[in-house]
Design goal:
Length: 154
């Protein structure tokens, strides 16, 4: 390989999701896992590094999901929904599925999660507002088991 190509090239390890310069890995193998690496341009190495960062679960995002879960399950509501919908899954699975559904609902605008500006002792300030009841009910029905006590076609 010509010298100038080496200067502008990096080696990318698919396993470790990071790049190394040729001086870090003279034999072309990853210094961390020893795996084979493939050449990549400097810009691609930087972009891949950014993407790998972006794909790793952010602690803020997972905390946000946790907040959503805490809000809709507040006051034993989680168990109540579970009892009425009688879904064909464990409670913890239902909690996860419902949380995903409600996050989607917030994205699409049929529910809204309200959080006070600063942390408050009064839990009632943390609210789920249903903005479109029909879409909310339809979403709940999608989780319902065969023995659910909700009305069909309501
Ligand atoms: Zn590696």
């Amino acid at each position: 390989m010509p010298a100038n190509a080496q200067n502008s090239s990096y080696l990318w390890c698919d396993t470790c999701r990071r790049s190394f310069s040729y001086s870090d890995a003279p034999d072309g193998n990853c210094p961390l896992c020893g795996g084979e690496m493939r050449p990549t341009s400097k810009v691609n190495a930087i972009l891949r590094g950014l993407m790998a960062n972006e794909l790793s679960p952010s602690p803020i995002v997972s905390k946000h999901r946790q907040m959503v879960k805490l809000i809709w399950t507040r006051n034993g509501m989680g168990e109540q929904y579970y009892r009425v919908l009688a879904p064909d899954m464990s409670y913890s699975k239902f909690e996860g599925a419902m949380t995903r559904l409600l996050c989607q609902g917030a994205e699409e605008g049929w529910v809204q999660f309200v959080i006070p500006d600063a942390p408050k002792d009064d839990e009632s300030l943390y609210q789920m507002k249903v903005l479109d009841e029909n879409r909310f009910l339809a979403a709940l029905q999608s989780l319902a088991g065969p023995d659910a006590s909700i009305e069909e076609g309501a």
